[in-house]
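Hi C.,

You asked whether I'd gotten around to modeling the 534-residue construct. I have! Everything is below, sequence then structure, no commentary in between.
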Amino acid sequence: MERVATYIILLLIFSINCVSACPELCRCSGHTVSCPDSSVIPDGIPQDTASLSFVGHLFTNLPSYTFVLHKLHNLELLQIEYGNLEVIRPYAFHGLPRLNLLHLRANNINLIDPKAFDGLSRVTILYLTENKLQQLAPRQFDGLSSLTWLSLSNNELQGIAPNAFSGLGSLKSLYLRNNHITELTTYQSFSGLRKLSLLTLNSNEVLQHIGNGVFSQLGNLEKLELGDNQISAETLNESTFVGLQNLRLLNLNENPLSTVPEVAFKAIPQLHVLYMSKTELKFIHPGAFQYLPNLMELTLDKNYDLYGIPQDSFHTMPALQVMKLSETNIKVLQADIFANASNLYHLSISKARLSKINPGVFLNLTNIHSLDLSNNKLTSLPSDIFASIPYSRSLKIDLRNNPWVCDCHLPEFIRSTNKLYTTTQLQKIFTISKNPPKCMNPPNLASTPIFTVPLSNLTCTPLSSSNKTDKKVIYITIGCLGSVVAIATIFAVIVFWKKCKQNKLSESVRFGSQQNIIPIDDDVSVHELNVSNI
């Protein structure tokens, strides 16, 4: 019993010591310590702490050797977030040999000494998001030799100094979106990033210029995000993406391109995904995609002024699987536009102004599973338009919200489609969200699903004799009115011309009398003039 009592007493003493080891105003749980709203780095932090956070802190400066005396040799995660921190001095994180994750987001950091991260050779992830950094100095991140993930998004960066990322040979992901970077002019901006696979520069709203070969040192880059900037077609040339031999995804969404230059993608033939939505495209050069034989996904949607696409634009992309052309101004699909797109899986041309699809457009789309033609201006379709599209359980063809005219121009299409698919298959293929395509006209068939209308009802009402007579009268009336208007116009011109001529003659006579010169009119002979002056 005495031994048990001794154990209990020792346990209580140990518990009291543990409790007392937690600094005032901090919360301790196991190896985790949280000190919200702290104005300093407090003394007495347990030395076995693995996770330490200062969320909502009040201190503005991290001096050199801030953590050395705390002997936090087991610390793996340090969070200093959503506070007032402004300046990080050199060697500020010395004494944290096992630190792996460093979160410094949502502060007011505007100055980081290039030696601030010295000694953090084990850190793999660094958050510097949502601060007020304006510049990156050369070798800004010295000491972070194991860093694989770095976020500098939502700062005020205006530029990147040459060799700013030198020493980050292990970095794989770099986030620079939502800054104020205006231009990238030299390859040294990203020198040393030999393992980088993801680079995001989205939403640098003033980024206009990208110099030739800027990305040439990024041979392992797989994803390049350049969306929502001010990049124009003049910026893109055959040297813009040189050196990116492993690039798989390129995002150019929301840039004012207006067109696609012929050689823009010459250096990246291995590209798989190209995003060009909302890029103000009006024209696509016929050879714009000729260097992209491995492209699998192409998005050109939300280019509201894109009126048409050269017929052979997609012929050099046999690997294409996904294409988005929705919300454009395309009115007609030419017969051979998808001639070499046999691997196309998803095609979307919804909310465009499509009014005509030529026969044979989808002839080679034998692998299509999703075809969206909804919300256009289609009134009918060629009879065998879907003849080469085999039925599959995942096949969906969206024809909704088009002004279908259920008259004598539609039966051949209905008859052909009924031969391709059974009634059950038709319902599965063409019914989207319980809503099949429906007739808009004639009024007696409005809102009737087009595939349920009896073929005998798909007729065109011939003109009655009275209607023909009325039309003839209208045409004759229009012709007569046109003739009257023409004659009246000619008469008015002649009267105006004679009046002008008489005015000119009067002025000439008046001027001649003043100078004792007799004007000669084309209709008056010299003889008559001599007689009148005797």
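If it helps when you're writing up: The chain is about 20% helix and 15% strand.

Thanks,
B.
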